[in-house]
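User: Fold both of these, please.

Assistant: Here is the first one.
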Amino acid sequence: MQRMKTDLFNYELPPELIAQHPAERRDMARMMVLHRDSGRIEHRAITDITDYLKTPDVLVLNNTKVIPARVFGHKESSGGKIELLLLEEIGGTPSPASMDSEDAVPPGTWKVLMKASRRPKPGDKLLLCSGKARAIMLEDGDQGEAVLQIETDRPLMEILDEEGVPPLPPYISRKDQSEEQIATDKERYQTVYSSEPGAAAAPTAGLHFTPELLRTLANQGVKTAELTLHVGLGTFRPVSTDDITDHAMHHERYEVSAEAAHTICAAKQAGGRVVAVGSTSVRTLETLGADFPTIGKRFSTIGKADGSTNIFIYPPYEFKVADTILTNFHLPKSTLLMMMSAFAGRERMLHAYEVAVQEKYRFFSYGDCMLIL
């Protein structure tokens, strides 16, 4: 295994370039275009993506839907405040120790990230969402993780719609927690094609698309294929090790329909490019490429697939499925920046980021984007 220092993926970012709010309209984002073959950089707008895609290309979209996963509550015994980020419901699935039905995890069991002044202990009871939900601490984990059993008198998602807050990343400051601001974030921290609830963070490269822009691409003969990867810790957990090969990726659930697989393979067969929108689409596609290694040669072998992936893509890596990537600008030393460096080359990618800083692009989730050809 080739060792590689995490610091090789660092860069300097002025804090004022971190976007705190989305653009006035989704399709107002700037788009840097990076040509991998020559290193040439263009400065365009997201609406200009129509100049770069054509039939028989296929645009691959992650249709996961962000749930209002940030919730507040308190310990029943002491009243101590609790803040949670709901990551994934694991209830109803077999336990890791056994696939026997007797060991199935009960419904309502959730993996969470927890903040508390004094951390609860296993067995402690919590009241959440203005008392509309009750929870018991089952397990305490590392780096803020925990497992809770959550009980409600009506569907939890209904309660989250009422009480939950969009799970914006910590670099977005929200002193304004008015109902109007929360409603705005609920709309804008979500793609227009989201349909499958389950994400704890948005697949942010897709935030720039409008129905009109997608229709324009379709009218040009660009197909779309939707897959689902529920964004969780695997995507946004920072790298805390000195060497990237020591970093452990968390699993994230994915699903690819037979129709989507067929559309992707048909585009490859016809000589088109697979244009992955966002790192989560890339991770899913490359997981399929690992499971179906003949995708680039014989396309009949790939079909409907679902499961979980902890694939970690960093240089050097040979991409099997993705030919082009649309992505946002990522945090220093993040797994996402490492993935894009594997796709375009580390030095070329870091140079592009230097240019982005000079040109005052807006960074991270609510920021601008980059098309890597």
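And the second sequence with its predicted structure:
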Amino acid sequence: MHMMKFSTRRLLVVVVVLAGLLVAACGPAPLGTSWPAVTLIQDQCGETTRTGILVAYLDRVVVVNPANGRGMPLLNPTNCETRQDNNGNLRVWDFRSGGKQFFTLPLEISDEKMLVVSYDQHLIQVNPTLVQPVDGNAAGVPITTSTGHVVTDPVLSDDTIYVSMSAKDVIALDRETFDRRWTFTTEHGVWAKPLLVENTLYFASLDHNLYAVNAETGAEIWRLDLGGAATATPTLHDGKLYIGSFARKVYEISAEDGTILNSFDTLDWVWGAPTIVDEVLYTADLVGNVYAIDISNGMREIWTQKVATAAIRPSPLVVGGVVIVASRDQKVYWLNARDGSIRQDDEGNPMVRELQASIFSDILLIEPSESVDIDEPIIVVSTTANNQILVAYALDNAASKWEVAYAFQ
């Protein structure tokens, strides 16, 4: 009876986390079934370089100014002045698909071209200066005879685009023509972004395997059964791959031949990619535990802390002596890297911040620089609440800085 309860609880956790994707796998995804995909992006106009936060969510791709959370103004490339519409209003970076939904981040093909891959397998080319479809083709070019949908970030090389499919398979497309170069068949979906290292593409699948294939030909180099589904990009460190799985393990694997070198048992399923800093691996599981593991010689536990009350999907952010994790329980936690305890601010209050909805996307760290007009490091997290898709906090004391709604200006 105890085992039945445990299995049901684990199943419910994953169903909640994946509900949108599982429902959408058989047809068009209703708006609201995904979470924001976020990263940092730079542009340059004349002598000016700007860093923005690129967000792909629902049917829009936007760029947000890290200094204030407002839309990043478009610049005229001839004089680098801000663009205005016919009514004199400031124009900001805001691409609207007109019906397509995005689960993944765009690819920067060139200074004049950005590629957005929609959930329903269409490749849409966008002019990043005008934020308009190239040649007016807002519908994009379909990826034909493919299974499932696109729910994880594609990967770009000098001549190829690698796209993972939610039902099964990874495909390689010509970067210029979008012609299919090869297809690698898996037994289940690939929901993790592949890792490209020189001429080898590594990716994990829900079919329990971690694969290494020749990036040029798609030929299999090796495969490894992880004992459970894997939903994260492997982390490469010192010639070894580190990845967690639903087998309740984190593995240390030879990147050369796929041999398991060491493993570490976790208390529950691991979703996100591990973070490695100074020979310490940090990871988390789907019931809210956070782990610090010494990988300098094998895999030895430093500490394990039960931090959150629900699943931790994003990879831990580790900076200085701080580990930051975010959870489906709608909270962000600042931890001491030495022992995993919750940090306190200058007034002795726990550095835990509650948001309006679950947090699934990885946390961004943004530091002051010539391209970012901020006076202290900040972190940015995203939620599934339309009126709070981005929230920024000071790194040092968790003070709130700004937040962004889906209908941002």
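Residues 1-30 form one domain.
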